Amino acid sequence: MKPLTSHRAKKLSGEITVPGDKSISHRALLLASQAIGKSEIHGLLEGEDVINTAKALEKMGVLIKKKGRVWEVNGVGTGGLSEPEGILYMGNSGTGTRLMLGLCATHGFTSSFSGDASLNKRPMLRAITPLKKFGAEFITREGGLLPVTVIGTKNPMPISYELPVASAQVKSAVLLAGLNAPGKTTVIEKTPTRDHTELMMKYFGFDISSRGGKITITGQAEVSRKKITVPGDPSSAAFPIVAALIVPGSEIIVKNVCINPARTGLYTTLKEMGARLEFLNIRENAGEKIADIAVSYSQLSGVRVPAGRAASMIDEYPILAIAAACASGKTVMLGLEELRVKESDRLSAIAEGLKYCGVEVSKTENSLTVTGAKKIPGGQVKTHMDHRIAMAFAILGMVSEKPVTVDDGQMINTSFPGFVELMNGLGGRIES
């Protein structure tokens, strides 16, 4: 373990860019592998999660090279992956694992997946259940846990599947499996989830349509290489943005951030709390909306965050809880059951960390209530091997009376390499 200690900051200032979006980076690699020819990916997140996806694809016959800041992926075409030798290690990445399960389910070979201690505790049945309908077989530990062996089907059948729970990862796993199934594969979702897979598939030229919560992909199509620019990750941008909102005198700009409408729930909530936050220079790239985000210190007030917003900000609740701790009044967050099956039981980890730091908090099975405080004592926090818990409480240390120490900061590299250096460059005081 490598603890991090965050000290009170004076003010934050400057212009920054954050690492490439993790969700888009995974999908760029996976879909480039299914195209024909050499695709170029600019701005790929070089965190451990994404690198493990690249390594898994390489073991299945995809040549991937980094030249300077550009990643080149020599696609093998739809259905062109080869059987890997040995286990595919996915580290801490639930996204990479579930999407890869989908891709492999309709390839006629056997593949096995494993991960770190945290990933091996995360359930995979939600993705496996629809993938079995294509004809694939799965061998897992009890409860659908990793390691998982996929016996891909040589004769996949297209399916129609209605998501029982809103999940972009399960939706994407089914759509990726549908790439190598004949005919039309359809996913039906009652609640909209992030649509990066659909946008990226459309950009590559796959025959995909989306209307009224019904997404349909026509399989076994050939598409050609593309040039992709990955925008900054809004989930990563959330940490310096909230830091600037709560540290008096701060004023920053975060450049080139993805503002896909399915990812902006946090920004909507922060504005409702009174945040001085503005989107500048809005443009589009490969179907994704991008903007520069200007933010400055604000007096925040507690709000009620509806359950229907959870899908658009599911990864941002740890840092929203930090903003809530610094706001006046109570902030009530609803619809948080999905937080219990993230890298940790995030709902419990957030509540536990806030209590350790002297913040009044209560939780139920699917909600969190945080009462803001004028003064936050600080303290020591257990991360439970969760990168977002580690970063969120490092931000809290910038406004607490005494330092906040998180027990381990190593896993931050899975999503935000260079986090400490970037925050310290703005004026933070985080020590490792």
Write up this protein.
It is a single chain. With 432 residues, the protein is an alpha/beta fold. The protein folds into two domains: 4-20 and 231-431, Alpha-beta prism (UDP-n-acetylglucosamine1-carboxyvinyl-transferase, Chain), CATH 3.65.10; 22-218, Enolpyruvate transferase domain (UDP-n-acetylglucosamine1-carboxyvinyl-transferase, Chain, Alpha-beta prism). The chain is 28% helix and 28% strand. The protein is built from twelve helices and 24 strands. The strands form six sheets. It has a four-stranded mixed β-sheet. A four-stranded mixed β-sheet has the order 2-15-17-16. A four-stranded mixed β-sheet has the order 4-5-3-14, covered by helices on one side. A hairpin with a 3-residue loop joins strand 8 and strand 9. Helix 9 (317-325) packs parallel to helix 11 (387-396). It is globular, with a radius of gyration of 21 Å. The termini are close together.
CATH topology of the largest domain: UDP-n-acetylglucosamine1-carboxyvinyl-transferase, Chain
Main β-sheet, spatial strand arrangement: 22-23-1-24
In the CATH classification, which architecture of the largest domain applies? Alpha-beta prism
**Class by helix and strand content?**
alpha/beta
Taking pLDDT < 50 over at least 5 consecutive residues as the criterion, the unreliable ranges are none
Helical fraction equals: 25-40%
Shape: globular
Query: Helical stretch count?
Result: 12
Q: For the record, what is the CATH homologous superfamily label of the largest domain?
A: Enolpyruvate transferase domain
What is the CATH top level name of the largest domain?
Alpha Beta
The biggest beta sheet, please?
4 strands, mixed
- Mean pLDDT rating: 96
Distance between the termini: 11 Å
Q: Please tell me the total number of domains.
A: 2
Number of DSSP strands? 24
Quote the beta fraction.
25-35%
